[in-house]
Task: structure prediction
Amino acid sequence: AQRVTQPEKLLSVFKGAPVELKCNYSYSGSPELFWYVQYSRQRLQLLLRHISRESIKGFTADLNKGETSFHLKKPFAQEEDSAMYYCALIGTSGSRLTFGEGTQLTVNP
Amino acid sequence: GAGVSQSPSNKVTEKGKDVELRCDPISGHTALYWYRQRLGQGLEFLIYFQGNSAPDKSGLPSDRFSAERTGESVSTLTIQRTQQEDSAVYLCASSPGGSQREQYFGPGTRLTVT
Result:
């Protein structure tokens, strides 16, 4: 069975501080990993996918197959980064997204 | 371009009534998904369409739930004899299909069963 774990339901940092949102997964294969973000009163939107290895809004995430992790990082958090963040995976043979329970990030001024 | 749209945005219904939720995917997206999010919980997969067929219905919680998709476009999720535990936000997503697996979400329908 595939599973995504986000150990922190709530994370609070100050503006300008580094932030790391943790994501661990279990899957017996090579999944595709994603980070989705939901800002207040907006729809869920794709932030990053691991295969594109890009940086969006200053966020990066590296897939660590040894540790089965896909942590999301940003060196200098901004107030506009405050949102709910979901880590999700798709298995090699499937199409459904399996989501973690989300981390609510608050960036304080 | 236009994103995924869903209607209604909010639905309040009495226990035991049937409801229909609609999803309009992004034009040209062959894959369509339904998820739900109950209060305080994560998103759960319900059903996946590739074109008009549904190769994965394994997430539908009971036979009161059904969905169809016509013309490789609009999808309708129907819940019969609604129960209070059906109260949730129902999300629809679409993706281009093939190797492009990223999913684009609609705004959701908030269903409240009283």
